[in-house]
């Protein structure tokens, strides 16, 4: 301001227009708690508190409003108010209505608070978890990287030096280098590259969250900064939401991206998934068969995938395939049990032994006995030997043959007893066959003595045992 003579105006003459305006405004009167609270006076008091809430501009103002509500709640508890008529559902309840009004105002206080820097950090941590927990496509990872980089730049601009704008390297080639890779890729290098890329993005978000925490933002003084950060986190969330996940793809698109169809040239079998399955079986690509089994939710493809494992036998045995089949075997899946036997999967013995005594389910027992025999489990000798005396003469032969496949000499005596005493020729013949498989002199002699047996199938086993003994006795 000038006084006309280019002389500085006297300081005493300077007037702060803002202060003058403020001086003209009447001071707000704090709500006054009624001396003798009644329904009317408490209602009026709460209306004054509502006005104070509407005028609140800072966290301190909101603290004052909350203190007033505490006073109102205490006054209400001491107030002598009429009680509603219990027999009249429509009767007024002054105390209940006032309690509801206080609760509503408390919610208003909470809604008016913040936002806080902690809200921003929490949103960033949620985004980091989304990055780690989501299975992205290659395009999805690139889009996620763009969203994170944009967020880092926005956060750096909002908080100045509290966040480094170069918290993440902007390297588009790194996002595209692992094209086609995902958590199920059968190339370890591709999977590692994808995981490394996600780790870089997560580290970037962690760095931003730490920078915001260190900035010590005040919800009043830094309200604009916090609002800008929350806007940036909203954009980050939208960016991650729009980025492509594997679950967004159709099944055939997922399989194509993971190389399932790469083995196909000219093919005659349809559907093409079956044609590819046959080629993967021929090449021993266990991971691809498991991929088809998991992805192609049809009974047709499930059956063919399992049949492929059955034909492959030990070639199809990997840690992952055994885990898949054990999960099915744990649900009494006889097909899976049969396959575990073909794989000679020792890992299945503990599960299979639980089914040995399932006398009410002979089909399950048959599959179990054969699988234990093919696995060659010594732990199964005792339980299987006991089954040589079970009632079902359709299952007893399977127990005998399983003991023969295992080949443990501890089974000689129970098998010899079955050969001598069982009422079923099928069981006796199976016991004779099992003794021949064990193949010791004692076992062979136990069979050979039945060469004159009336039953042809038993006589045949005895003759084969005798021939083996004769061959062993003949000098070379």
UniProtKB/TrEMBL annotation:
Matching InterPro entries: ARM-like (IPR011989), ARM-type_fold (IPR016024), PBS_lyase_HEAT (IPR004155)
Region (Disordered): 1-42, 66-99, 169-191
Biased composition (Acidic residues): 1-27, 66-92
Listed transmembrane segments: none
GO molecular function annotation: oxidoreductase activity
Pfam families: HEAT_2
The protein, known as: HEAT repeat-containing protein
């Amino acid at each position: 301001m000038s006084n006309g003579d280019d002389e500085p105006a006297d300081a005493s003459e300077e007037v702060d227009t803002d202060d003058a305006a403020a001086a003209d405004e009447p001071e707000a009167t704090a709500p006054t708690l009624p001396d003798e609270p009644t329904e009317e006076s408490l209602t009026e008091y709460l209306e004054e508190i509502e006005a104070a809430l509407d005028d609140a501009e800072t966290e301190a103002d909101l603290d004052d409003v909350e203190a007033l509500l505490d006073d109102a709640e205490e006054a209400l508890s001491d107030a002598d108010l009429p009680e509603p008529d219990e027999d009249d559902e429509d009767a007024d309840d002054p105390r209940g209505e006032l309690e509801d009004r206080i609760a509503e105002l408390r919610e208003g206080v909470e809604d008016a608070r913040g936002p806080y820097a902690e809200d921003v950090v929490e949103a960033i941590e949620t985004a980091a978890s989304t990055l780690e927990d989501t299975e992205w496509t290659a395009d999805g990872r690139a889009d996620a990287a763009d969203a994170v980089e944009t967020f880092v730049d926005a956060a750096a601009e909002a908080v100045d030096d509290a966040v480094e704008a170069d918290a993440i390297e902007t390297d588009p080639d790194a996002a595209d280098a692992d094209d086609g890779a995902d958590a199920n890729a059968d190339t370890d290098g591709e999977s590692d590259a994808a995981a490394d890329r996600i780790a870089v993005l997560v580290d970037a978000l962690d760095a931003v969250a730490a920078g915001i925490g260190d900035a010590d933002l005040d919800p009043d003084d830094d309200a604009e900064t916090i609002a800008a950060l929350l806007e940036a986190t909203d954009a980050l969330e939208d960016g991650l939401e729009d980025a492509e996940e594997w679950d967004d793809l159709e099944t055939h698109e997922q399989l194509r991206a993971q190389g399932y169809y790469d083995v196909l040239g000219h093919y005659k079998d349809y559907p093409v998934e079956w044609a590819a399955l046959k080629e993967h079986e021929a090449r021993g690509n266990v991971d691809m068969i498991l991929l088809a089994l998991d992805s192609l939710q049809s009974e047709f493809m499930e059956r063919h995938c399992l049949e492929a494992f059955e034909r492959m036998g030990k070639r199809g045995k990997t840690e992952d395939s055994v885990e898949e089949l054990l999960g099915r075997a744990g649900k009494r899946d006889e097909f899976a049990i049969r396959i575990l036997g073909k794989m000679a999967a020792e890992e299945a013995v503990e599960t299979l032994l639980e089914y040995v005594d399932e006398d009410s389910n002979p089909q399950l027992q048959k599959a179990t006995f054969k699988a234990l025999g093919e696995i060659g489990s010594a732990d199964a000798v005792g339980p299987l030997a006991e089954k040589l005396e079970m009632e079902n003469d359709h299952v007893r032969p399977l127990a005998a043959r399983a003991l023969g496949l295992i080949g443990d000499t501890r089974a000689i005596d129970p098998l010899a007893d079955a050969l001598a005493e069982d009422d079923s020729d099928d069981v006796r013949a199976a016991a004779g066959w099992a003794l021949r498989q064990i193949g010791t002199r004692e076992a062979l002699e136990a069979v050979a003595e039945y060469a004159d047996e009336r039953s042809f199938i038993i006589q045949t086993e005895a003759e084969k045992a005798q021939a083996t003994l004769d061959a062993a006795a003949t000098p070379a």
